[in-house]
Design a protein that fits this description.
- By secondary structure, the chain is mainly alpha-helical.
- It has one domain.
- Helices cover about 75% and strands about 0% of the residues.
- It has 7 helices and no strands.
- The longest helix is centred in the C-terminal third of the chain and has 33 residues.
- It is globular and about 45 Å long.
Length: about 140
């Protein structure tokens, strides 16, 4: 078993969930359920939670897109984020989470790829959100 998941392998994992993610984005109830499970997962996984400080923004942007409150983001970026969330909570891990620290490496790699793909949009979303809060 490979103990470290490469970013290339993480991208393949992320890409494999795009179709499912795109469909899930259209179902508000299922998407809300997924976002709730992701929030629970990051709270229960200290290694993942500390390394993924951008999770709240990622979750908020996906929710804003799904509710059409915020649409200034590529549907491909939203699908990539949802695909990463699906991997975290629903798909079989390459390295089981029950293995301390190593079990979160594949999760971290998938999130790192999703974060890299969505970074400009996340920054724009944060600016948009900040401007609404000060208005």
């Amino acid at each position: 078993m490979e103990t470290v998941v490469s970013l290339d392998k993480a991208k393949v994992i992320l890409d494999s969930g795009i179709e499912q993610a795109t469909a899930l984005i259209q179902d508000k109830t299922e998407l809300d359920d997924l976002l709730t499970k992701v929030q629970t997962k990051i709270q229960e996984t200290p290694v993942l939670g500390s390394a993924a400080a951008d999770f709240p923004v990622m979750l908020q942007m996906v929710k804003g897109y799904a509710t059409k409150e915020y649409t200034n983001v590529s549907p491909k970026v939203v699908a990539a984020l949802v695909s990463a969330f699906l991997y975290l909570v629903k798909r079989k891990d390459l390295i089981p989470d029950s293995i301390p620290i190593l079990g979160q490496l594949d999760d971290l790699a998938v999130i790192a790829v999703a974060l890299k793909l969505s970074e400009p949009e996340l920054k724009e979303f944060q600016r948009w959100k900040a401007s609404r809060e000060t208005a």
